[in-house]
Structures are given as structure tokens and as C-alpha cells.
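Whiteboard transcription, Tuesday session. T.W. wrote the C-alpha cells on the left side:
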């Protein structure tokens, strides 16, 4: 992965990030395959991310290419990644700026185990699959109930016929 690709994916992923009031300039040094530098400047609630060195920064975060890629893809939060980074300068300020990049983890797909009318256990991974499984189970239950009702009706007719023959003798 190239520096430009990593930087652009990070910037795009967090284009809507906002921060607290005040001023902070955090330089990010990337190590590894996509080695490079960029800065995050928080000023009056606005967050700027630019691919330049920021000499008069409040803190410097040194992060690996792989770790920043995970943050850019939102596989992990920047705050949790910070524990694996080196931070020099005002670490508390760096944490507060980085927290602007934290996101609510995506709701994991609903996973449940359902028993269908046919007695089969199925595992569904998403709401749409769960709806499909429930519909199939309801359909199977309806067929099974209808089959039982038909069987019961046939049996009761047979019993009635047998009773009628016995009564006629």
C-alpha cells in the first residue's frame, strides 16, 4: 500500500469527524510500507486532515501502516489503536483529538438459532435471512398442520364408517 492510498482512505473515512472547541495540532508519523506524515488540526469544532508536516504541533503520534489501515477501514477505533502507538508531547490532548475519530461499532448481524416446524435447527446471520427462515418455518408449519388435520379427518371418517357398519349389524 502506498502512502497516498492510505492517507486518502483515512481522510475519506473521517471526512465528517468533528471535534471539541479549542485548538490542537497533532502530527501523525506513519511507519512501515506506507511511511509518511500527516497532521490533524482541531480548531473551533472543525477538524482538518492534511498530508503535511506540522512543526508547531501539540503532540506526535507514531503509528504503523497496518494499524492506521485498520483505523481507516474502521475495523478498530483510533482511541484503541493509540494504545499500540508512541505518543510524544501532550498525550491527553492527542487522546481528545483522536476520540473525534471514534465511531459506534456497527451493529453485528443478528445471530439466532431457530427450530423450524420440520424440527430442523437453522442458524441465521441477518435480519433478512431470519425473516426468510421464519417464513419458511411458518409455511412448513402450515403444511404440517394441514397434513395432520387431513390425517385426523380421514381417521375420523374411517372410525365413523366402522362404527356405522358395527351399528348396522
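and on the right, the sequence the group agreed on:
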Amino acid at each position: 500500500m502506498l502512502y497516498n492510498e492510505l492517507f486518502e482512505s483515512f481522510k475519506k473515512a473521517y471526512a465528517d469527524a468533528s471535534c471539541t472547541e479549542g485548538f490542537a495540532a497533532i502530527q501523525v508519523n506513519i511507519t512501515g510500507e506506507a511511511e509518511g506524515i500527516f497532521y490533524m488540526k482541531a480548531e473551533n469544532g472543525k477538524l482538518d486532515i492534511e498530508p503535511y508536516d506540522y512543526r508547531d504541533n501539540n503532540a506526535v503520534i507514531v503509528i504503523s501502516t497496518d494499524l492506521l489501515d485498520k483505523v481507516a477501514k474502521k475495523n478498530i477505533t483510533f482511541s484503541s489503536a493509540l494504545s499500540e502507538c508512541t505518543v510524544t508531547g501532550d498525550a491527553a490532548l492527542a487522546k481528545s483529538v483522536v476520540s473525534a475519530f471514534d465511531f459506534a461499532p456497527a451493529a453485528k448481524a443478528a445471530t439466532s438459532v431457530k427450530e423450524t416446524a420440520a424440527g430442523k435447527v437453522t442458524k441465521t446471520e441477518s435480519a433478512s435471512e431470519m425473516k426468510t427462515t421464519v417464513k419458511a418455518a411458518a409455511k412448513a408449519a402450515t403444511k404440517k398442520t394441514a397434513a395432520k388435520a387431513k390425517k385426523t379427518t380421514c381417521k375420523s371418517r374411517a372410525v365413523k364408517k366402522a362404527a356405522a357398519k358395527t351399528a348396522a349389524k
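Someone added at the bottom: Helices lie at 3-13, 65-72, 78-82, 91-98, 127-168.
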